[in-house]
Write a structure and sequence with these properties.
single chain, mainly alpha, ABC transporter involved in vitamin B12 uptake, BtuC, two-stranded antiparallel sheet, 12 helices
């Protein structure tokens, strides 16, 4: 297989770990990359300080655990979006796909009475299959990602309602299901640190995703798809295969998010899910990924997810109305995209 450097486009520099072509001033680029992550982390610290002053109850253990719990679902969804956005794609279906996977777990566990392990696999495999379909629509049929995933978003929402009969599916008869998200393995050993299992699962998914992006051929091609897809194609790489693979992996991760939220609620709520994609995409962009593709990190995405959760929780603690919380979220998304635009202009 020919290297990317050998393509007719004369791409003479290797692709670096961020997925962009490594410039001669690599030190300057690393400095900008590190500075960006420090700014995101500083923003998170600033929010924590502000809300702790504005609301005395903000730093209570129960509230901090609540923030971690809510971040686990959005963080896993954001990790799924990170893969797609790095390829310069977009996935608007992650929220309803999460719900569909939760419903599929309910079908296997509650309707058919199968073992917990089978229900878990059903959710993850369902997500992977749905991601494969989305990737095929985009790679093979050349449907723009925005349109393809918008259509799939409505499809998953409808299927979740049809399969569940428009009613929640409860997991009361499935021992151990709630422990996926609610119990605390760490809390059993250290009672003063009752971190929910969902948070541990989120970090485990993040570690695996980081390894995939940084240490494997899959990650290298994921970045290359967003950096210069045509150069990758001309170098002899099966671009369609790798693009479908990215959406398949993202779908499987959405299946994990479905398990987390269903375990947290002890039920699969078929009407839930729409709107989660906005928080997930915002977390990815806030974390430093570019909507034009080629850049993004799992660490940045997690920081962005924590920022979104802290902001939502803090506004709720300050008794800000739900509609104004939505307004703030929308403004943050616009600001994050604007910052990304400025960042790309400086890079160019």
């Amino acid at each position: 297989m020919a290297n990317i450097q050998d393509s007719p486009l004369q791409v003479t520099q290797p692709i670096d770990g961020m997925g962009t072509l490594a410039p001669s001033g690599l030190g300057a680029k690393i400095f900008r990359f590190t500075r960006q992550k420090l700014l995101v982390f500083a923003s998170l610290v600033a929010l924590l300080v502000f809300f702790s002053i504005a609301s005395p109850n903000f730093l209570e253990i129960d509230n901090l655990v609540s923030i971690l719990q809510s971040t686990s679902v959005n963080g896993v969804l954001a990790i799924a979006c990170t893969f797609v956005i790095i390829t310069s794609g977009i996935d608007l279906s992650v929220g309803t796909l999460m719900t569909f996977c939760a419903v599929m777990a309910g079908v296997f566990l509650t309707f058919w009475g199968m073992r917990l392990s089978i229900g878990i696999m059903a959710a993850i495999v369902s997500g992977a299959l749905c991601g494969w379909i989305s990737g095929t629509l985009i790679a093979k049929l050349k449907i723009p990602p925005f349109i393809a995933t918008l259509g799939m978003m409505m499809l998953y929402k409808g299927l979740a309602l049809v399969i569940s009969g428009t009613k929640p599916i409860y997991f009361n008869d499935t021992p151990g299901f709630s422990s996926i998200s609610q119990d605390s393995w760490i809390g059993n050993w250290i009672p003063s640190i009752p971190i929910p299992n969902a948070v541990l699962i989120m970090f485990l998914v993040a570690i695996v995703a980081h390894i995939l992006l940084k240490k494997t051929l899959f990650g290298r091609y994921t970045f290359a798809l967003g950096s210069n897809e045509e150069a990758l194609r001309l170098s002899g790489v099966n671009v369609n295969f790798w693009k479908i693979a990215v959406y398949t992996v993202a779908g499987a991760i959405c299946g994990i998010a479905g398990l987390l939220i269903a375990s947290r609620l002890n039920s699969a709520q078929p009407a839930l899910g729409q709107g989660y994609e906005l928080d997930a995409i915002a977390a990815v962009v806030i974390g430093g990924a570019s909507l034009s593709g080629g850049t993004g990190t799992i660490v940045g995405t997690l920081l962005g997810a924590f920022i979104m959760s802290v902001l939502t929780n803090g506004l709720r603690m300050m008794s800000v109305a739900q509609e104004w919380q939505t307004v703030v979220t929308g403004l943050i998304i616009i600001l994050a995209v604007y910052v990304d635009t400025l960042r790309r202009q400086r890079r160019d």
